[in-house]
Amino acid sequence: MNTPQPQSTLREWRDHMRAPARLAAFAGAAAILALAGPFESGEVMRPAPRLAYWAIVVLTCYSIGYWSSVLAEHVIGSRDGFFKKLLIAASLTSVGVVAAIYLLNGLALNFWPTGKPLAILAANVAVISSIITTVFHVADTQDTVQPTPSGVPLLDRLPIDKRAPLVSVSVEDHYVRIRTTKAEEMVLMRLADAIRETADTGLQVHRSHWVATSQVTAATRKGDGAILTMATGPDIPVSRTNIAKIKEAGLLPR
Q1: Which of 16, 93, 167, 241 could serve as a FRET partner for 179 with CA atoms 20 to 30 Å apart?
Q2: Beta carbons of 82 and 31 less than 8 angstroms apart
């Protein structure tokens, strides 16, 4: 995985946070914490404000951990220095979560500890956040080394839940939109570089489009060019200069 650019990383973070399973996990964690009422929140807050408070805590702390891991990967690299990356991610997460919890507790509970109470709170939060960061970090590494469904290097650039047989790759500004049979993802790279990572599973049929031949369900002539109907996603245009190429592939009669 290449080091993500800021806009691409923000997009990945939004997609990551909006995943249905992850949203359900956030809601479940917030509900459990609201019922348990740790840090005396059950004694000083009503149920609705308490649920809102813990929902904010869960989302904030998870986001801090996510961005700490992104920064650690940027500094160390994608697959090198596992323990260094873990140390950086855990340290940044601990500091960020301690600061966030201190601020949220102060604003919501009017609890601004100093001295020994602050040290105890910081130590507990730091230990818990470090353990959780380690668990997620190890799990993420295990996911990363899983082989892609078809051995296509381009799929390594996609989130695990979006990896599936390729359908098409299309240029949009400085990004390419990678479509699979499951989903799609925008990645900051050139089309030529993306095509080199498709493992020769398809054809470039337009200056802005590549298709997996196995995912073409129909081909129709249109003027000097053609239109390909895909198993998933929108139709893909074929330029005049690529008509011979799709005929040779058997997508159009010779």
Answers
A1: 241
A2: no
Q: What are phi and psi of 142, to 5 degrees?
A: -65, -40
| Closest by CA position to 171, among listed 216, 201, 217, 204 | 204
Q: Please, are residues 89 and 137 in contact by the beta-carbon 8 Å criterion? A: yes
Q: Which helix (H) or strand (E) holds 63?
A: helix 47-76
User: Among 144, 148, 138, 186, which residue's Cα sits nearest to residue 5?
Assistant: 186
Question: How far apart are the C-alpha atoms of 113 and 214, rounded to whole Å?
Answer: 63
Confidence (pTM): 0.50
Burial (0-12, 13-18, 19+ Cβ within 10 Å), 170: buried
Q: How far apart are the C-alpha atoms of 76 and 9, rounded to whole Å? A: 17
* Contact in structure between 123 and 117 (CB atoms under 8 Å): no
Q: Identify the segments of the chain with pLDDT beneath 70.
A: 1-9, 11, 39, 76-81, 136-150, 254
